[in-house]
Amino acid sequence: MRRHESFGTILIGKSVLIREGIVRILRAKNFRILASVSCLDELPAAARSQQLLFLIVHTNDDFNLAIEQIELVRNQYSSGRIAVVADHYRQAEPDMAFQAGAAGYFVSAMSCDAFIKSIELVMMGETVFPPTFLSSPSVVGSESQHKTVLSGESERAIIVATEDTAAPQLSPRELAILRCLIEGSSNKGIARKIDIAEATVKVHVKAILRKIRVQNRTQAAIWGLNNVLPVQPANSNSLLPAVDANESLSTSIALVSAVK
């Protein structure tokens, strides 16, 4: 995905150190960082005419501060994409963020690669939230609200779980194919790599999607990044500090989807 090259990325948050860490991760993946500021008022006027992604960095217990920034961004940059990056998961926050206009809510229990892919999905018009978001009172209590969650944002919603999930049993062949999906290989490319028929690859891919409970190859790749690829040592397990873009957290994520 190269869509991030057409976006200007802006980080907003009180923690300079954490913003700097995220900036280093994003720059390593060729994101265009336009600004890193503590609040929207500090944003340079030159950024106003561009296609923008706003990352609201949230590191304290007062989520109203993040909501205030989301609402300000939504009012001043109606076409901008907004996501919250939180230092840890707080139950009520995803619903509050969605209601305020955010298209994503990420926590530090993600690998850097999954973080990048999730941001790219937000840029493409996807909505990325924890699965518990679908069971929140405001969603369950209203059928029309539930329809908005599933059908809004170009009729797509990607739900990313930060809880540990029991890994399904994938065969050695399925694991090999999943690794190829992570690399972005086509069915024809996979068939060539592991010397099987392309029709057989299609059967295996469908089985993988069913077993890990995702709907498409992109979601399978994100799942695989966190459940199949080796994880870095615990002493380097942080998305938020200034780290190398390939470092991962020890806590894996699972990905379930409401994509049609």
Q: What's the mean pLDDT score?
A: 74
* Distance, first to last CA: 21 Å
Order of helices and strands: EHEEHEHEHEHHEHHHHE
Instruction: Report the portion of residues in β strands.
Output: 5-15%
Residue runs with pLDDT of under 50 for 5 or more positions: 139-156, 161-166, 230-260
Give the biggest beta sheet. Answer: 5 strands, parallel
Helix proportion range = 40-55%
What sort of overall outline do the alpha carbons produce when their principal axes are compared? elongated
Which radius of gyration do the C-alpha atoms yield? 18 Å
CATH architecture of the domain at 3-161: 3-Layer(aba) Sandwich
CATH superfamily of the domain at 3-161: Response regulator
Question: What's the quick description here?
Answer:
The chain is of the alpha/beta class and 260 residues long. The protein is 42% helix and 15% strand.
Blueprint of the fold:
Blueprint: E1 8-12, H1 16-28, E2 32-37, E3 52-58, H2 63-76, E4 81-86, H3 93-100, E5 104-107, H4 112-123, E6 128-129, H5 137-140, H6 143-155, E7 158-161, H7 172-182, H8 187-194, H9 198-212, H10 217-227, E8 254-257
Parallel strand pairs: 1-2, 1-3, 3-4, 4-5, 6-7
Antiparallel strand pairs: 7-8
